[in-house]
Specification:
Oligomer: heterodimer
CATH class of the largest domain in chain B: Mainly Alpha
CATH topology of the largest domain in chain B: MetI-like fold
CATH architecture of the largest domain in chain B: Orthogonal Bundle
Strand order of the largest sheet of chain B: 1-2
Largest interface: A-B, 81 and 82 residues
Main location (chain A): membrane
Shape of chain B: globular
Subcellular location (chain A): Cell membrane
Transmembrane segments (chain A): 12-31, 67-88, 100-124, 130-154, 174-194, 232-253
Largest sheet of chain A: none
Membrane topology (chain A): Multi-pass membrane protein
Strand content of chain B: under 5%
Family (chain A): Belongs to the binding-protein-dependent transport system permease family. CysTW subfamily.
């Protein structure tokens, strides 16, 4: 192994400084006493207090969590089904269209997705609110879930499923008892991905939410457009903290599972 | 059972992805009207076949003609393309050295570095863009710092210009550029570089003649992953750009929410999609080539 050159060390240091410094500054200044966000006036947690007593933010956070939970759960079910269809179903009429519909929403500009869904809801005379945002989020995030799950399905040994069928399982039992436990880590990461995509979305939610529902990104948007605010800094800090704990935790659990799975597979290989 | 498995996701996507798009296309052929919904004609199934024919005869390409006549739209499409091209190149320039450094880092560091690149991607996009507002504004941290070290005498105007838009795009899309390049560089066999150096290449020409061509697929994939979403970007030009920053995503939003001209907004969306089809198809081909090479 070559030692790392100075060039590599410098580019990594500068690169990660660029990625993390803006968020670090945001976190530091969320503890700023002053209302003037760019001037430091001493340590204080008062903006967190103001944030937590601001009913509009709490309501928006609750709506966002509801939308994210419902849409990611529905997207996980639909996306897993779509992944099984893509990997296992062989040829059927409309397969090209199907795979096109799985990939297209991921590259579609959000403004177009949002606009088209809004026009659909309007022409069907649907009341817009939490449910329409859930439908919109489910549609684009199921595509991400299906990509994550199908990459796991491709690599897994189909003969295990066939063995279960030979031993008298119904196809559904074989799926529940054999396939699902094996693809579970991918299904869980798909769910997490769908959940964060939904938490994060501003554009599609703005189009599809009626006047009755406001999500947290929409609330942040309307106050950020007027300029930097200490309350938003505090909110950002909380969100960064939650995501960091979640991602680091998930990757540790995942790492443990992978190690365990490898060990089990190695043991099974020895027996065979 | 199998049919049901195919049918459920199929019908879902048909109803919530294809049909909405057909509606957009239909409304792009309609006229603006002072009514609810604010366009005409509307289709009423009760009128039967004659009503449908009348409905068809009312549709026209007027909104598309309007898009070619009004300079605002042309300029917005062109400036979106320009901003997307420049920021893709900038992201490549910033991202390549980072990916390179990661691929050359000791093996036990790599998982950690990989996670550090992914982590911002899970953090709210809106917040990451917002974090630059405080840095780039007139009395922001960057200007304070530069004034303090004496590099400038007067604060620079960066926020609400295209420069701020470039910074925002490079910052938020950097992980999309780093990851594919890192994946390509990590597979690269170091002995090839040693061979090139043994054969008399300087370090730089070994990099240029061996490393860069072998990471081409990663560079292409990363560039598309930045370029495609940037064209329709709305949040970054609205928060960091100024009134003179023209991007088509922002124009579409304003056409819809401020001018309430749904037919023109729909026509803008259809043209944007037509422009995007070319890079999307090229990107898919590149991915397929990569998959076939991997087999």
């Amino acid at each position: 192994m070559r030692r790392m050159s100075w060039f590599n060390i410098t580019s990594l240091t500068l690169g990660f400084a660029f990625l993390y410094l803006p968020m670090l500054i945001l976190i530091i200044f969320s503890f700023n006493e002053s209302k003037l966000v760019t001037v430091w006036a001493g340590f204080s947690t008062k903006w967190y207090g103001e944030l937590l007593s601001n009913g509009a933010f709490l309501d928006a956070a609750w709506v966002t969590l509801k939308v994210a939970f419902l849409s990611s759960t529905m997207a996980t079910v639909l996306g897993t089904m779509a992944a099984i269809v893509m990997v296992r179903s062989g040829r059927f009429a409309g397969r090209t269209l199907f795979s096109g519909m799985i990939y297209a929403p991921m590259v579609m500009p959000e403004v177009i997705t949002g606009l088209s869904l809004l026009l659909l809801f309007i022409s069907l005379n649907v009341d817009r609110g939490v449910m329409t945002i859930v439908l919109a989020h489910t549609t684009f995030s199921m595509c991400y879930v299906s990509v994550v799950v199908s990459s796991r399905l491709v690599s897994f040994d189909q003969s295990l499923e066939e063995a279960a069928l030979d031993l008298g399982c119904s196809p559904f039992q074989a799926f529940r008892l054999v396939t699902l436990p094996i693809i579970a880590p991918a299904v869980i990461s798909g769910w997490l991905l769908a959940f964060t995509l939904s938490l994060d979305d501003l554009v599609i939610a703005s189009f599809t939410a009626g006047p009755s529902a406001t999500t947290l990104p929409m609330k942040i948007w309307s106050s950020v457009r007027l300029g930097v605010s200490p309350e938003i800094n505090a909110l950002s800090t909380l969100m960064i903290l939650i995501v960091t704990v979640g991602v680091v935790g998930a990757s540790l659990i995942n790492k443990r599972n992978v190690v365990r799975q490898r060990r089990e597979e190695a043991a099974a290989a020895k027996l065979a | 059972m199998r049919r049901l498995l195919i049918a459920i996701p199929f019908v879902w996507l048909l109803a919530l992805f294809i049909v909405p798009f057909l509606i957009v296309f239909k409304i792009s052929l309609s006229d603006l009207a002072v009514a609810i919904p604010p366009y005409t004609p509307t289709l009423d199934p009760a009128d039967g076949w004659a009503g449908f024919k009348h409905f068809l005869s009312q549709l026209d390409w007027e909104n598309y003609v309007w898009l070619t006549e009004d300079a605002l739209y042309w300029k917005a499409y062109l400036s979106s393309l320009k901003i997307a091209v420049i920021s893709t190149l900038l992201t490549l320039l910033v991202g390549y050295p980072i990916a390179y450094g990661m691929a050359r880092a000791p093996e036990e560091w790599r998982a950690m570095l990989f996670m550090l690149v992914i982590l911002p991607f899970w953090t709210s996009f809106l917040i990451r863009v917002y974090s630059w507002m405080g840095i780039l504004s007139q009395e922001g941290y960057l200007n304070q710092f530069l004034l303090w070290i004496g590099a400038i005498n007067e604060p620079l105007v960066i926020l609400n210009t295209n420069i701020a838009v470039y910074i925002g795009i490079v910052y938020t899309y950097l992980p999309f550029m780093i990851l594919p390049i890192y994946a390509a560089l990590e597979k690269l066999d170091i002995s090839l570089l040693e061979a090139a150096e043994d054969l008399g290449c300087s370090r730089f020409s070994a990099f240029w003649l061996v490393t860069v061509p072998l990471s081409k697929q990663g560079i292409v994939a990363g560039s598309f992953l930045v370029f495609i979403p940037t064209i329709g970007e709305f949040v970054i030009p609205s928060l960091l750009g100024g009134s003179r920053t023209l991007m088509i995503g922002k124009v579409l939003w304003e056409e819809f929410f401020s001018n309430r001209d749904w037919p023109v907004a729909s026509a803008v969306a259809v043209v944007l999609l037509l422009i995007l089809i070319i890079p999307i198809v090229l990107f898919q081909r590149n991915e397929q080539k990569q998959r076939e090479a991997g087999k």
